[in-house]
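Propose amino acids for all 724 sites.
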């Protein structure tokens, strides 16, 4: 508008802003996790008290609780934060109210029929500990990217007041688990109320009793997330702790958790008047939601069970994440009968029919009920999470479609991606801002954007990487000293900033083969201790509390520090979480991944690393099998799996050492007169140019919209088999 006139909306925004104090504005920003992917807003919170910010796990609500209005304003004046707070508050409100150009063109019918995204865990930020690892962080990135694109989506999960365990190693290097109760007052959670203004509580009937769950609301940018928990006096003592811990307890605990997130989650949405057009199940954990939606459809529309199943399956999207059999929940017939008999009767089917929905062999009365089978049978839009995983999944579940060939099994693939604003270091983003087109961050999943990386001065790119490496080493030093203090030990770590630094951080499942490097320990020692070309390794990761072999891997790696040959060459960072991951993927030189092919469904940690110029060195599995082109990282192995795992492990170990010795190390230490590794930097640029756009969560969510959500909402089928 001309003459500097303001629109009515802008006038109302100004009035609202002027009616709030800076303290209230800061609190408002802290209660929307939008702040967690905006580096300037994070820096604003940090500057209120840098030491406490770190001690409080980067939690702005906990930090603000340490202030009253007077002490807050004193600190704001000291640090001249007033304009930054106003700016953050204004930007957040503009973000929340704006309709994105992408959504205006692409979401179509979803505008009136939102997507309901169910997941057992969500990894949004380390200050909200309701995740364990890759599955949850993928779900968090999905939600954040849906928010950025403007996809109409609501998220449903569980609130775990003790989260996943805190990890520490004892004097022998053995993993110990510690559970701490989260203070709800330190989280951006709001209780959900029903239409009468009372606390919303849903009931789930069992054969002998019931489970009650209440709902919490969490704002993640534009996405509303609803989390259920069972710590209510209406529940039996055991059921009050149902949602205390993520992936804790036995099969009885697990089936009840999955009933709460699936059945309870659907009931919460209905109570709030939210009627999704699409139900997206992130893994089989949430598949009970489909049965509850079938029940509701029968009740609301007066249709038969078979017709309700047909309609609900058309609206359901199912994502499977693992080719590992142990990753698919299975429950005994007795457990199913104890928990689902009331729902079975409401569905008007007998127990055999109910069990058949979760069985591959429908007439085998001894077969357990599989949640993945239920998810596949009650969805018409199923996908794996990488091209190779799609092939494996079609083979794995082909028995469900006996009349079809393996290639015709209706399981496609949408390869995982990562939320770029969350994982890209602000130093890298600042560098890209100077060379890339304006507003590139909004179009970062466009392949043309990343071609500008070749315009960057090689020395400047390397200098930025070295600065991130230094920050990571400072972080590791602090963590290791704290670890030693816990064990009453005097230990310092002196990482060499000039040495090639290789990172390995992920869940310590045995198929991920964290100790593959150690099969030839003498050669490994020789590589690490070369005075002219030293190599050092940083490890992090948790083993499931019941995984003894995984814990043994951690012990073996941690205890290498006691071997003089590996002094300051092997570091294990305890308590792997989003914070540790962020430092490592931004600071190491090489990201190592050596799973036993084809057991890595996708893997996203390497995608986070590549955003920051870190080169991947990986088995050709998961996402790397479709990403590696020979000049954008390093490939390990032959791209095939040996039938004998021992022979295959030995073969891959030799290949890994060969790649390190003859490709990675020589390239890293090939320097010009100014000390720049030009060929290495060129490979960093190749990595960014060929993969950063392709493995973005924005691209991933866009694919879900076009190839899964819109067909599910509109009744149109679509082939996803070749989506990458």
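Proposal:
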């Amino acid at each position: 508008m001309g003459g500097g006139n303001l629109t009515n909306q802008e006038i109302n925004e100004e009035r609202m802003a002027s009616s709030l104090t800076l303290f209230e504005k800061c609190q408002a920003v802290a209660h929307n996790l939008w702040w967690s992917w905006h580096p300037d807003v994070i820096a604003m919170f940090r500057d209120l008290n840098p030491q406490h910010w770190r001690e409080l796990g980067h939690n702005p609500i906990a930090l603000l609780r340490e202030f009253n209005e007077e002490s807050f304003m004193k600190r704001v004046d000291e640090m001249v934060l007033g304009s930054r707070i106003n700016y953050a508050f204004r930007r957040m409100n503009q973000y929340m109210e704006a309709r994105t150009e992408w959504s205006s063109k692409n979401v179509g019918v979803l505008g009136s029929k939102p997507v309901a995204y169910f997941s057992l865990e969500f990894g949004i930020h380390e200050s909200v500990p309701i995740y364990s690892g890759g599955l949850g962080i993928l779900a968090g990135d999905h939600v954040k990217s849906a928010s950025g694109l403007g996809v109409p989506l609501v998220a449903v999960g569980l609130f775990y007041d003790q989260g996943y365990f805190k990890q520490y190693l004892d004097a022998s290097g053995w993993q110990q688990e510690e559970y701490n109760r989260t203070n709800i007052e330190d989280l951006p959670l709001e209780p959900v109320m029903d239409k009468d203004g009372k606390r919303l509580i849903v009931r789930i009937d069992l054969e002998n009793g019931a489970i009650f769950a209440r709902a919490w609301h969490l704002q993640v940018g534009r996405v509303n997330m609803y989390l259920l928990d069972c710590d209510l006096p209406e529940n039996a003592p055991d059921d009050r702790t149902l949602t205390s811990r993520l992936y804790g307890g036995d099969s009885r605990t697990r089936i009840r958790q999955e009933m709460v997130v699936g059945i309870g989650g659907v009931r919460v949405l209905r109570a709030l008047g939210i009627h999704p057009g699409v139900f997206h199940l992130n893994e089989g954990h949430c598949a009970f939601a489909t049965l509850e939606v079938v029940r509701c459809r029968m009740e609301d529309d007066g249709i038969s069970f078979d017709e309700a199943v047909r309609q609900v399956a058309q609206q359901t999207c199912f994502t499977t994440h693992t080719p590992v059999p142990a990753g698919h929940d299975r429950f005994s017939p007795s457990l199913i009968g104890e928990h689902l008999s009331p729902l079975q009767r409401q569905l008007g089917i007998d127990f055999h029919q109910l069990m058949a929905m979760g069985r591959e062999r429908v007439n085998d009365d001894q077969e357990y009920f599989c949640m993945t089978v239920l998810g596949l049978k009650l969805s018409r839009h199923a996908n794996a999470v990488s091209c190779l995983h799609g092939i494996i999944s079609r083979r794995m579940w082909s028995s469900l479609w006996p009349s079809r060939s393996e290639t015709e099994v209706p399981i496609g693939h949408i390869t995982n991606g990562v939320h770029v604003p969350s994982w890209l270091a602000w130093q890298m983003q600042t560098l890209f801002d100077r060379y890339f087109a304006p507003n590139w961050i909004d179009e970062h999943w466009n392949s043309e954007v990343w071609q500008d990386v070749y315009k960057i001065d090689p020395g400047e790119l390397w200098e930025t990487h070295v600065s991130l490496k230094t920050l990571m080493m400072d972080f590791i030093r602090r963590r290791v000293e704290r670890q030693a203090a816990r064990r009453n030990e005097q230990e310092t770590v002196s990482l060499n900033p000039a040495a090639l630094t290789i990172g390995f951080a992920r869940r310590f499942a045995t198929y991920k083969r964290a100790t593959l490097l150690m099969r030839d320990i003498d050669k490994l020692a020789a590589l690490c201790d070369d005075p002219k070309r030293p190599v050092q390794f940083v490890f992090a990761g948790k083993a499931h509390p019941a995984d003894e072999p995984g814990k043994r891997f951690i012990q073996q790696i941690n205890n290498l520090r006691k071997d003089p040959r590996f002094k300051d060459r092997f570091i294990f960072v305890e308590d792997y979480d989003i914070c540790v991951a962020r430092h490592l993927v931004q600071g190491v030189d090489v990201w190592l991944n050596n799973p036993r092919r084809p057991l890595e469904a996708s893997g996203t940690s390497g995608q986070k690393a590549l955003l920051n110029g870190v080169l991947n060195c990986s088995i050709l599995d998961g996402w790397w099998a479709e990403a590696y082109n020979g000049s954008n990282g390093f490939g390990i192995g032959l791209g095939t799996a040996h039938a004998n795992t021992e022979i295959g492990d030995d073969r891959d170990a030799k290949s890994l050492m060969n790649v390190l010795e003859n490709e990675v190390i020589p390239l890293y230490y090939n320097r010009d007169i100014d000390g720049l590794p030009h060929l290495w930097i060129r490979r960093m640029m190749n990595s960014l140019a060929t993969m950063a756009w392709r493995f973005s969560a924005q691209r991933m969510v866009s694919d879900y919209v076009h190839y899964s959500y819109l067909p599910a909402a509109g009744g149109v089928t679509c082939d996803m088999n070749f989506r990458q």
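The two ends are 44 Å apart (CA to CA). The CA atoms of residues 315 and 712 lie 5 Å apart.
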